[in-house]
Here is the input.
Amino acid sequence: MKILLAIVAFSFILTGCIAEKDLGEGTDALEGTPMDNYNPSSDNPEKSDHYTNRYGYVRYDKEQLNMDEEEQQIPVMNREYVANMITRTLLKMEQIGEAATLVTDEHTLIAYDISESDYDREEIADMVKKTAVSFLPAYYEIYISDAPNAYQDLQSLSNNTSVEEDSRQTIEQIIERFKQSPQGEPTYGDDRQDSTNRMNNTVD
Here is the structure.
């Protein structure tokens, strides 16, 4: 069941969540076969009845694109959509009664309730973290918490943006509180963060 959820989650993120900013605008300049070009309807999967049944496929050659502009393009992820899919997937687990997810530019924070007290916190934490990993690029750091006040922490940031300096400081404070809850087995993001910390300590 865990493997199936991970596969489904990964399929969603590949086919619906990551797109290049403004890609598809100005398609009049594209001379290729329409079926080979980007399908803008995939940007909003909830408005496409057959979206989940379609494969994702895009093909260009360099003559169709302004490569100077492409050099400036930054891949953009629909964070709200990813947060929605992570939360909904978590609620499919019988052990989870409620969940909330906040996705920033480099962190994902998840608050959740365990539906019954006799479940193992460490095991559930591992399930929650692995679910989030299946949706996210490898560079994301994931922190989770089953503490009652974790929802308030996430709610306080729900309308913030990644360019607000105060938000970053608040996120770091929340992360420290989240670390007091079980964090599940280490992931690639955890290993990367540990390496960064070791490098910083060496420099200091």
